[in-house]
Amino acid sequence: MKKVHIGYNIPTQEHVFIERYYNDDGTQAVKTVISCPDDNWNYNMDFLTEDEFEILTDRDESQSLKEEIYLDNLGGEVTSYFIFF
To answer: Is the Cβ–Cβ distance between 52 and 69 less than 8 Å?
Structure first.
């Protein structure tokens, strides 16, 4: 199993991480989770497409595009917990 781990370490904010697990040959996502260990919450994000996941992992993509993906998939209540960069 292959794991991709993306961390957002923002001063004055909680740490937010996205973890995506792939099958053994790395061709298909098996599980995707967004979590904040400091605040003890996590949400299932298995519904993210590979394209959306690539945007979220790319630091050169715009913050507004990432925010749109999070809002579409998680809703405003969850996304109010963190800032996108």
So the answer is: yes
